[in-house]
């Protein structure tokens, strides 16, 4: 992956996923390896995303890299009307890799075309967020000790949730059985189901959350966003339909873990947090290891590199 | 009969060397001109539209003297004129005749349907992969969203 941009989960193969996950495991064992001392990582956040930015910045800092960038387009030259191309070309003079989040879909692909240095997509509108997908795979593998042959339930907004789309597509490489729980108006798009069908995998659709819980290994919860509904009445109807409460996990399999890309609003009640099945905060921590692995792989630095004083 | 033949001949006269694009759907004639950048060249061009066609009722036709197109280029017009025929003329004789075919990739002809796509906000030539040629569906190279046949509009 050296010197290659990571824009979309479609850019990398199953082998690449596993290479990254294996490398991330090494960082989990020893997160503070100062092997990127000589490097500058630019984090360009054209829209705010505190969680993702901090995760990348933490990953870079733990590796000893310097971090430059902006946290919001309002504080950058974008506000003065600079084109994306100009911003990318300018920043590429100052850094070795660019991590970018942008509100427009396709912006990361375009940036990767014009940029002389690699781009890591940290979310382009509703399109792709490949590092989230990789950290989800890492979390599943870590908690289930495998990726193959699992029963995975996705709950909530399956229509617009890009994390769900990317993860579901990535999981089609692992003989997953999909359990899709959503209101009728927020069902998984046929474009994503096509990937599942192409691999001849099974998927089941539900409108009730409770019936899937006893049968699955992972409950992947998502937030239903109000802005997805044109009619407030429609939102009111479904907003409380998929809330996970602690007592609902009583009949769950022993190995079940509850995941969520965060932030959560009310879809997981706080009494779940202390249940050992709750995994969403550890999931966020795994994001740092996965991003350490990606930065290292893309910058072409060997993890065994000796640290210079 | 003779009179009719004369009239037919007068509709669009023959060319010595060049390319004829026949059987264009009449409403697409001007789009074809634009897609092939015929409005920017100095060659002799004859354009006819709403002409009678035995096969299609009405048709358009474009004759460009002394110009030959790469198949990639000409196939772009398949999006707007799927029934079009390409005829290559040398010394008043047809040397090649074929229907246009929808290409695998399309650049800078079609707009992305997604209003939030970067190509609709910065000056970037659009690019699509044709993912279904039968029931025309184009996937944006940038935002990965699909533009369906009924939603195609041109740059």
Which helices and strands appear, and what pairs or packs with what?
The complex is a heterodimer of chains A (309) and B (155).
Chain A: H1 14-29, E1 40-45, H2 50-62, E2 66-70, H3 84-91, E3 97-102, H4 107-114, E4 119-124, H5 130-144, E5 151-155, H6 162-171, E6 177-181, H7 190-198, E7 203-206, E8 218-221, H8 232-239, E9 257-259, H9 280-299
Parallel strand pairs in A: 1-2, 1-3, 3-4, 5-6, 5-8, 6-7, 8-9
Helix pairs in contact in A: 1-5, 1-9, 2-9, 3-4, 5-6, 5-9
Chain B: H1 2-11, E1 18-24, H2 29-35, E2 45-53, E3 57-65, H3 71-75, E4 85-90, E5 93-99, E6 105-107, E7 127-132, E8 137-140, E9 146-148
Antiparallel strand pairs in B: 1-3, 1-4, 2-3, 4-5, 6-7, 7-8, 8-9
Describe this structure in words.
The complex is a heterodimer of chains A (309) and B (155). Chain A contains nine helices and nine strands. Chain A has 309 residues and is of the alpha/beta class. Chain A has two domains: 133 residues, Rossmann fold (3-Layer(aba) Sandwich), CATH 3.40.50; 154 residues, Rossmann fold. In chain A, the strands form two sheets. Chain A has a five-stranded parallel β-sheet with strand order 7-6-5-8-9, with helices on one face. In chain A, strands 2-1-3-4 form a four-stranded parallel β-sheet, sandwiched between helices. In chain A, helix 6 links the parallel strand 5 and strand 6. The two termini of chain A are 28 Å apart. The relative contact order of chain B is 0.16. The longest helix of chain B has 10 residues. Chain B folds into two domains: 98 residues, Aspartate carbamoyltransferase regulatory subunit, N-terminal domain (Alpha-Beta Plaits, 2-Layer Sandwich), CATH 3.30.70.140; 47 residues, Aspartate carbamoyltransferase regulatory subunit, C-terminal domain (SH3 type barrels). In chain B, the strands form two sheets. Chain B has a five-stranded antiparallel β-sheet with strand order 2-3-1-4-5, covered by helices on one side. In chain B, 14% of the residues lie in helices and 35% in strands. In chain B, a hairpin with a 5-residue loop joins strand 8 and strand 9. Classes of the chains: A alpha/beta (309), B alpha+beta (155). Chains A and B meet through helix 4 of A and loops of B.
């Amino acid at each position: 992956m050296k010197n290659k941009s990571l824009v979309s989960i479609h850019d990398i193969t199953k082998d690449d996923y596993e290479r990254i996950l294996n490398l991330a495991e090494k960082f989990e064992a020893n997160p503070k390896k100062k092997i990127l001392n000589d490097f500058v990582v630019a984090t360009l956040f054209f829209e705010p995303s505190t969680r993702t930015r901090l995760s990348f910045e933490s990953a870079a800092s733990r590796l000893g890299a310097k971090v430059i960038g902006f946290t919001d387009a309002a504080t950058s030259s974008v506000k003065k009307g600079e084109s994306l191309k100009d911003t990318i070309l300018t920043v590429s003079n100052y850094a070795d890799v660019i991590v970018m989040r942008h509100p427009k879909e396709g912006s990361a692909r375009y940036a990767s075309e014009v940029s002389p240095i690699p781009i890591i997509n940290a979310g382009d509108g509703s399109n792709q967020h490949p590092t989230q997908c990789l950290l989800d795979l890492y979390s599943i593998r870590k908690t289930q000790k495998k990726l193959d042959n699992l029963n995975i339930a996705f709950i909530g907004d399956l229509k617009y949730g890009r994390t769900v789309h990317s993860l579901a597509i990535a999981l089609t490489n692992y003989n997953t059985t999909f359990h899709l729980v959503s209101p009728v108006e927020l069902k998984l798009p046929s474009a994503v189901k096509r990937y599942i069908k192409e691999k001849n995998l099974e998927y089941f659709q539900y409108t009730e959350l409770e019936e899937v819980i006893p049968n699955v290994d992972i409950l992947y919860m998502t937030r239903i966003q109000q802005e997805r509904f044109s009619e407030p009445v429609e939102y009111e109807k479904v907003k409380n339909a998929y809330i996970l409460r602690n007592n609902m996990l009583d009949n769950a399999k022993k190995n079940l873990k509850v995941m969520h890309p965060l932030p959560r609003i009310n879809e997981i009640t706080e009494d779940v947090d202390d249940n050992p099945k709750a995994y969403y905060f550890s999931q966020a921590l795994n994001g740092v290891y996965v991003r350490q692995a990606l930065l290292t792989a893309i910058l072409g630095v060997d993890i065994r590199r000796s640290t210079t004083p | 009969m003779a009179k009719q033949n004369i009239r037919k001949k007068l509709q669009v006269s023959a060319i010595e060397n060049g390319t004829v694009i026949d059987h264009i759907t009449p409403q697409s004639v001007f789009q074809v001109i634009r897609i092939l950048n015929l409005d920017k060249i100095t060659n002799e061009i004859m354009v006819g539209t709403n002409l009678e066609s035995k096969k299609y009722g009405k048709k358009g036709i474009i004759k460009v003297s002394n110009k030959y197109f790469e198949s990639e280029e000409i196939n772009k017009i398949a999006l707007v004129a799927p029934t079009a025929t390409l005829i290559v003329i040398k010394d008043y004789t047809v040397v090649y005749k074929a229907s246009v075919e929808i290409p695998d990739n399309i650049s800078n002809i079609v707009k992305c349907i997604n209003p939030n796509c970067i190509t609709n906000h910065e000056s970037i030539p659009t690019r699509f992969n044709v993912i279904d040629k039968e029931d025309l569906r184009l996937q944006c190279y940038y935002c990965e969203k699909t533009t369906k046949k009924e939603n195609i509009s041109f740059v």
